[in-house]
Amino acid sequence: MHKKLIKFKNIPLSNGLLFNLNNKIKNYDLKVGYNSDTHLVSLYDNVSPEKLFHNDYVYDSSQSDTMVNHFKEAALSIQKKYKCLSPLEIGSNSGIFIEHFSKKNPIAVEPCSNFAKITTDKGIITYDEYWGDAISNKILNSHGERDMIYSANTISHIQNLDECFKSIYKCLSKDGVFIIECPSFLELLKGNAFDQFYHEHQSYFSCLSLNIILKKYNLSIFDIELYPVHGGTYRYYITKDNYYKLEENVVSAINEEIKYGLCNYDVLKSKMEVIKNNISKIKNTLINLKEKGAKIIGYGASAKFTQVTNMSEIDNTIIDFVMDTTPSKQNKYLPKSNIKVLPYNKELLKKADYCFLGAWNYKDEIMNKEIDFLKKGGKFITHIPTIKIYDINNR
Length: 395
Ligand code: TYD
Fold this sequence. Notes:
With 395 residues, the chain is α/β, with parallel strands linked by helices. The chain is 32% helix and 24% strand. It has helices at residues 49-52, 65-81, 113-121, 133-143, 161-171, 185-190, 207-215, 248-260, 265-291, 303-311, 363-369, 371-375; strands spanning 2-12, 27-35, 41-44, 87-90, 107-109, 125-127, 146-152, 172-183, 203-204, 219-227, 233-240, 296-299, 321-324, 340-343, 354-357, 379-382, 388-390.
C-alpha cells in the first residue's frame, strides 16, 4: 500500500525529446508514494517500461568524463575484490563498465537496442532484452551461472522487482556477488534533489528498504560504499544465502537512515514541503533575472534539466536554449518547455550572462572546463540543494 508523498501533475517523459515543436507530447502525473512495510519510496501508477526504454533512448553514459572514470574505476576495483570469471551487466548502456571485463567473456543485457548495438560493437555478447525470467533462463542455459552481476542505475528503473530478484537469484552462483549502484534516497533528501523524481526512476532505494525487499528472495546486502556521482550513490554488495559475512558499514548505513527518518512518513512528508518551496524559489529567481534583461542559457540537457524546468514551469521564454554534447539529443526540443538543445559549442557561451546547470551533478567538471566563461564575468546557476549563483569568486 502506497501512502502519497508528492504528486507532480502533467509531466512529460524526461527523455522524450521532440524532433520539432509540432510533435504531440503526452503528459503523465508523477506520483511518489511511501510503503510502510518495506519503507521503499517509489512511483505508483507509472507509465509502462516500453514507453520509457526503447530504440530512441537518448541517455548516453559516455558523455561525461566523470562517469567514464567512475565506471572504469568500479570495474577495476570489483575485479580486485572478486574473481569475476563470469561477469554479467544488466543495463549496459554504452558499455563503459563492462568493456573493462573484455578478457573474461562478459555478457550484457540492454533493452534499448541502439545502446545494445554499441555494447555489441565493443565485442561483448549483448542481449537486447528487458531483464527478467525469460532472459535469465536463456543466459543460464547458454552460458551457465554468473559469479558477478553488476547493475548501475537500472534496478531502480525496473517495475517488477519480484521477477527481477527471482531471476537474479537463479543466475547467481553460490559464491557470486550481485552489485547494485543507484542514488541513495538519503542523499537525495539531504540534497533536496527533487529532479531525480521522474518516470524512469521507479524506486528510490535506501539501504534499509532495498535490504528488506532483497531478503524476501534470500539475497542480502553485506557491504556498502558511497560515491559522489549523481549527488550520492551507493554501491551495494549483495550475497545469496548469506555466503558473505555482513560488514559493520551496512548496519551503520541503515542506522543513519532510520535516525534521519526514512521510516517516518511525517518526516518524509515535511521534506516534500521543502522541495515544493525550492521549486518556487527556482521559478522566481529565473523569472526575476530574465525581467532584469539577463540572457540565460542551459548547460546539459539531462533528464533532470527537463524535470526542473517543467516542475518550476520555466520554458523557452526564460532559457534561450540548452547545450549538450550528446548527438542524439541535439537539435531536438525538450518536451513542454520547448527549449531547443544545441550541440555544445564554447562560442555559444559568449551569448550568455547566466548558464543554468542542468547537469548540476557534474558541476566541478563543467566549471573547470568553462573557467574562461567565469573569468569573463559569466555566472553559473545550480538549483541543488537550493538555487545558487556562482561567479569566478565563489566557484
Ligand atoms: P546526466 O546527469 O548524466 O543524466 P540524467 O539524464 O540521468 O539526468 O546527464 C547529463 C547531461 O549533460 C548529458 O546529456 C550529457 C550532458 N553533458 C554535457 O553536455 N557536457 C558536459 O560536460 C557534461 C559533463 C555533460
